[in-house]
Design brief:
heterodimer, A: 262 residues, alpha+beta, Immunoglobulin-like, 3 domains, four-stranded antiparallel sheet, 6 helices, 8 strands, 52% helix, B: 184 residues, mainly alpha, Arc Repressor Mutant, subunit A, 0% strand
Chain lengths: 262, 184
């Protein structure tokens, strides 16, 4: 039977420490140690000595043993650091995806804005081009008008030009025509603006009276205000008659509306 | 060396960081024991890993009221190693295990297994007694036969060896305090 004395003296505590005892003996020693504080302290000192012995004779194992051990442990345990890293990686790639998506949206918006600007500029350019063309046409028209006006002005303003006014008689009392005659340059210009409008099948025709004979000076077109007529030498008077459209070879004297002596 | 009860509690709660810290603290001392018993580095490394796996799995069996954590770990390591020597195929297939029957052929080749520290200051027979039971994994009965002395004599060798060892430690402790005092 074991007791405190035999345990201490027979070296049973050393065997207990080294794990050499049978299960029965082991339990008995454990029980005695639990009850005997002094003996437990003795045993603790013994443990201390053996532990020091082991530490004095420690041999460092290679690091791979720990790596392998920790891999085994972490591999078998859920919620390990390894898994946490994996989640982080996932988060990281999500962050990259978000950045990429944002950049794509930004690029799309800026492209749309630039396209809109481009279309706007294109439209503006078209408007400007149309206006330029219009202005150019107007300049051409104005130039033509100016040239024509200048021609008439030069002709009318000549000091040798005589202005003659042909007033309408009872057939056409509202009509008034003005002729500009230059004997030096042998020109006759008619301003037909004041003549009363005629039916489509009628026209005004101008005649020169030379020694009692009426000589044709030309048909007066209805769409022009200033017209150059034929100059006739030795004319005594200028007459205007209403003739069928296209003019007549001989004047219809019954239809004489105005005349003026030269 | 005081046990860190908080660390052990964390280990019992299956905190892998606690196992890592305990490995750092005890692996060298336990590897020294395992390697001296099995005398094969490759096998000893596998056994060391196996030991800590068992410490991890069975840590709830450890009761601080019954003794120190290192003593418990030492028993785990020693039992695993002795079992693997008795039944080599059970743990890891290794051709070298077959030579353990001829221990004397391998033993002297490993300089690393030379014992160090306070043990070297002991008388050779005291040194041998502790080496056999503590570092070679022999039981008292096997060891007294190995040393060819009666069991009672062998037990007294162990006791005397431990007593002298403690005296050496105490001297070291006093020396340590003297050095500390001087430094202060």
């Amino acid at each position: 039977m074991m007791n405190r004395k035999s345990i201490k003296e027979k070296g049973i505590l050393e065997q207990y420490l080294l794990g050499e005892l049978s299960d029965d003996q082991h339990v008995q020693v454990e029980k005695i140690l639990k009850e005997d504080q002094e003996l437990f302290q003795y045993y603790t000192d013994l443990e201390q000595d053996f532990e020091k012995l082991a530490f004095e004779n420690a041999i460092a194992p290679p690091p791979r043993v720990k790596d392998s051990l920790m891999n085994d442990i972490l591999g078998a345990t859920p919620n390990t650091d390894k898994n946490v890293i994996a989640i982080n990686r996932k988060n990281q790639s999500a962050v990259y995806l978000t950045i990429a998506a944002s950049l794509a949206v930004l690029f799309m918006l800026s492209s749309a804005w630039l396209y809109h600007q481009w279309q706007d500029s294109k439209n503006n350019l078209q408007v400007v081009q149309d206006e330029t063309l219009d202005l150019r046409n107007r300049i051409v028209t104005l130039e033509e008008n100016l040239k024509e006006t200048n021609t008439w002005y030069t002709a009318i303003n000549n000091p040798n030009t005589i202005q003659l006014v042909l007033k309408g008689n009872e057939i056409s009392p509202s009509s008034t025509a003005i002729t500009y005659v230059n004997h030096d340059k042998k020109t006759v210009i008619l301003n037909s603006e004041g003549l009363a409008p005629l039916e489509n099948d009628k026209t005004y025709q101008m005649w020169a009276d030379v020694d009692g004979e009426m000589i044709d000076m030309g048909v007066v077109p209805s769409d022009k205000q200033m017209i150059a007529m034929k100059y006739i030498e030795n004319a005594a008077s200028i007459n205007i008659t209403i003739e069928p459209a296209g003019g007549n070879d001989h004047p219809t004297v019954e239809r004489l509306i105005s005349n003026v002596l030269l | 060396m005081q046990d860190d009860l908080e660390l052990i509690k964390q280990l019992q709660n299956k905190d892998s960081r606690a196992l890592s810290a305990i490995y750092d603290r005890y692996s060298g001392a336990l590897y020294g024991v395992i390697l001296r018993i099995c005398k094969n580095e490759e096998v000893a490394q596998d056994l060391l890993q196996e030991t800590f796996l068992k410490i991890w799995q069975k840590s709830h069996h450890y009761d601080p009221k019954k003794g120190k954590f290192f003593t418990w770990s030492y028993r785990v390591a020693k039992n695993l190693t002795l079992n693997s020597l008795r039944n080599p195929t059970k743990l890891i297939q290794n051709e070298d295990l077959s030579v353990y029957e001829d221990k004397e052929i391998n033993e002297p080749e490993l300089d690393i297994l030379q014992l160090n520290g306070s043990l070297k200051a002991l008388d050779p027979h005291h040194q041998k007694a502790l080496e056999l039971v503590y570092f070679n994994g022999l039981t008292h009965r096997e060891a007294h036969e190995e040393m060819n002395v009666p069991l009672g004599t062998f037990k007294s060798y162990v006791k005397q060896a431990l007593k002298k060892l403690r005296e050496t430690y105490q001297k070291q402790l006093i020396l340590f305090w003297v050095i500390i005092e001087k430094m202060i």
